[in-house]
Amino acid sequence: MRVDSERAAMIMVGETEFRPVGPQAWDTGVRRTDMDADGIDLQVVSPTPVFFGYERPADQAVKLARIFNDRTLETLAGDERFVPFCQVPLQDPDAACAELDRCLDAGHVGVEIGNHVGDRDLDDDGIVAFLTHCAHVGAPVLVHPWDMPGGPRIDRWMARWLTGMPAETHLSVLAMILGGAFDRLPPELRICFAHGGGSFPFWLGRLDNAWHRRGDIVRGASMHAPSHYLDRFFVDTVVFDEAPLRLLVDTLGEDRVMVGSDYPYPLGERPAGEVVRRAGFLSDGQRHKLLTANATRYLGRSG
């Protein structure tokens, strides 16, 4: 982090500027003001994936996680409007479980993970073991895409964010299905995929068709067609338009979609939840689920 002033800083990757950040990233007063302006009562505060450290030796990733996790709790100072999610050294499942337990004891509520660790996707035995532990201790999991491949065709126009992120999330949902992860995981696991589940909801019909017609290749370790698993995960509403929001509700069901924001970064929705509030196809009951009830259930809260 390069600190440029009291109100401005730059996230650095080596010597390369990655993303400018402002006081929204560290000033809870600024966050509260923005929440009030957007009509948001409760906000999940989660890590920035570029800081996960999955590519580092596990002992270094443990150290990084502890620094960020402890600093998060120190910054939030027990403010009940903020729900802290920790990060873990996912490349070492045992260390990841230990850090999660430490963080839950300290005041964190859930955990954010990247959608892969190198070439290991979410059906990897070690990652499934970690997710099983999350289910047993009741920690909700947020999966965020990260580390998208680059190249001349995708390094223009933020295309890694505009096409790479949706594709990464799609691939990881597919890995959990066809890799048999959902069949091995406890049904109590509460797991959410960011950005509306990426491109997965749009291509569900293609996936089911391939599973049935080319089962010799496609089925992998899965016991059922992809559409069977739609009640095993949540997605957020960061899709910005009524038409894709309708697709999410029609495909995944009104109980599996909850408001998201990507706050405080520039591709996030402001005001947060606006696409849900203005969606004409939602009933009042459905709108309440997307804005409130589904998130409280995902977080393990009542009310």
From TrEMBL:
<dbReference type="InterPro" id="IPR032465">
    <property type="entry name" value="ACMSD"/>
</dbReference>
<feature type="domain" description="Amidohydrolase-related">
    <location>
        <begin position="23"/>
        <end position="300"/>
    </location>
</feature>
<dbReference type="GO" id="GO:0005829">
    <property type="term" value="C:cytosol"/>
</dbReference>
<dbReference type="GO" id="GO:0001760">
    <property type="term" value="F:aminocarboxymuconate-semialdehyde decarboxylase activity"/>
</dbReference>
<comment type="subunit">
    <text>Monomer.</text>
</comment>
<dbReference type="InterPro" id="IPR006680">
    <property type="entry name" value="Amidohydro-rel"/>
</dbReference>
<comment type="pathway">
    <text>Secondary metabolite metabolism; quinolate metabolism.</text>
</comment>
<keyword id="KW-0456">Lyase</keyword>
<dbReference type="GO" id="GO:0046872">
    <property type="term" value="F:metal ion binding"/>
</dbReference>
<keyword id="KW-0862">Zinc</keyword>
<keyword id="KW-0210">Decarboxylase</keyword>
<protein>
    <recommendedName>
        <fullName>2-amino-3-carboxymuconate-6-semialdehyde decarboxylase</fullName>
        <ecNumber>4.1.1.45</ecNumber>
    </recommendedName>
</protein>
<comment type="similarity">
    <text>Belongs to the metallo-dependent hydrolases superfamily. ACMSD family.</text>
</comment>
<dbReference type="GO" id="GO:0019748">
    <property type="term" value="P:secondary metabolic process"/>
</dbReference>
<dbReference type="Pfam" id="PF04909">
    <property type="entry name" value="Amidohydro_2"/>
</dbReference>
<dbReference type="GO" id="GO:0016787">
    <property type="term" value="F:hydrolase activity"/>
</dbReference>
<keyword id="KW-0479">Metal-binding</keyword>
<dbReference type="InterPro" id="IPR032466">
    <property type="entry name" value="Metal_Hydrolase"/>
</dbReference>
